[in-house]
Amino acid sequence: MSEVSVTFEPAGVSLEALAHLGEGHIAYVKQVRSEDVPGLFPQAPKIAPGLKLFALHAADGTPIMLTDSREAAVANAWSNELQAVSVH
């Protein structure tokens, strides 16, 4: 996977256009703590505290999946024809 650096100047872009940027094409992977899971994935079963997990989100922030490895999150993005980017 290659890293892409993009500089975006939001001047002149509407909030609506910004909200749809990358929709259907980009997903992001974010490391989360198991304590944060109920807020992101209310339907998820109870998970032991203190775990580091990885969440895959659509470009608009909609949670897609939760896993215990970054690689699995990226693979899921690819299988859904989405370009995965990391959020730090």
Topology record:
Blueprint: H1 15-19, E1 26-33, H2 37-40, E2 52-58, E3 63-67, H3 70-79, E4 83-87
Parallel strand pairs: 1-4
Antiparallel strand pairs: 1-2, 2-3
Put the structure in a nutshell:
Helix content is 22%, strand content 28%. The chain contains three helices and four strands.
What does this structure look like?
The chain has 88 residues and is α+β, with helices and mostly antiparallel strands. The protein has helices spanning 15-19, 37-40, 70-79, and strands at residues 26-33, 52-58, 63-67, 83-87. It has a four-stranded mixed sheet with strand order 3-2-1-4. The longest helix is centred in the C-terminal third of the chain and has 10 residues, at 70-79. It is globular and about 45 Å long. The two termini are 17 Å apart. The relative contact order is 0.23. The model has no long low-confidence stretch (mean pLDDT 82).
Q: Rg from C-alpha positions?
A: 14 Å
Tell me the number of strands.
4
Main beta sheet: strand number and arrangement?
4 strands, mixed
| Helix amount | 10-25%
Residue stretches low in confidence (pLDDT < 50, at least 5 long) are none
The shape, in one word, is globular
Q: What's the average pLDDT?
A: 82
Physical arrangement of strands within the biggest beta sheet: 3-2-1-4
Q: Please give the count of helices.
A: 3
Beta-strand residue fraction: 25-35%
Distance linking N and C termini: 17 Å
Q: What structural category characterises the helix and strand content?
A: alpha+beta
Q: What's the SSE pattern?
A: HEHEEHE
